[in-house]
Design brief:
Shape: globular
Distance between the termini: 105 Å
Number of domains: 3
Number of strands: 27
Radius of gyration: 29 Å
Amino acid sequence: MKKKTQKPSKRRLPFLQRFFRWTAASAAALSLCIGGAAGAAWQLSPDSLTVTKTSGIQLPQSWYQVGLPNQGQETSVSLQNGEPREGEIRLLGVIPVKTISLESAQEPEVLVCGAPFGIKMEAKGVIIVGTADIAGNGKSVNPASEAGLQIGDVIYKAGGKEVSQNDELAKIFEASAGRPVTIEAEREGKDFTTQLTPVFSEADGQYKGGLWVRDSTAGIGTLTFCDPETSVFGGLGHGICDVDTNQLMPLGSGEILPVTISGVIRGQRGAAGELQGYFSSDLAMGEMSANTDTGVYGTLYELPDTGEVLPIAMKQEVKAGKAQILTTIDGGEPELYEAEIQSVNYDESRLTKNLIIKVTDPELLEKTGGIVQGLSGSPILQNGKLVGAVTHVLVNDPEKGYGIFAETMWKYSQKAG
């Protein structure tokens, strides 16, 4: 008879060895979780907080909290003589993640607007939106490209003369008679100088630089607030960009004018809606002093007849939950519509996308489909305070849009004013 071969038995590790291995694996997993949460807290938490008498220093998210170094969690902080002080972001209120600055301020109060306004803006210089070949002397030449000029560059001087209009630049090229013209321009915030040699165009008998430029723009937005003491206003919630280059237009001069809303193109998934309107008067309401990533700012000639003076919430006071949008979607006065703040983001690289807001008001949804172009700058209210302004629509979900913190716009308005 053949002997049965026995299968080798699996050796079981001693209990203590198994226990220590399990403990080590669990500790490693926990460490990864804590590290990931700490990284998220670093990215999603603010780098600074402004503290008022009513704001406190606590963020609404419970999983990271603010404290003072070497001290326990506090809901308020006293800053002597307005001196900045360091705070500390702590994961679960225990693990230090990030040092932030704390500074005190009086709680600002503004006249909340929500009315539409028109913008007429002259650029500081002319913006290159395209280049072209010029046919002359039996060949085709692109003078702009040969000079190293690119779409998006802003030309502010040509031949030693300041230029702010297309025809000014054209006259300088024509007067050059084909001699090199010194171009002074700006690209991504940096100045540079180059030489452009205009070419004689056989098509129309003129010397040309092969440039398509834009020198002005106009549009409609919503006025967010104005300071009842200084008449400084803030509106739009995002900057005015050139439609071709998508770059912020440098402000040479600008004014805002009254607008009447005459209709609405309803938003739908994949296609943003739009408020339609017209300038109802040639008399300017105010003068622009700044076009920034966070909105347009300037001074009103007269305070609006309507509106309510409300405090501005500091960003740590803004919470996910019920809110209201104050806006105008017809020829009447601004009205409040129900909405919901779905999330709050403190990432300072996303200045105009701090909030995700959803329209819940049946009337507004029926008329506009949600957030539409022209609502940009519409005030967002929560708990009796101005907390933000609408900035962008989510094109694939028009019931939702982005918002900017009102605190951010307020601070920019003070610099612009």
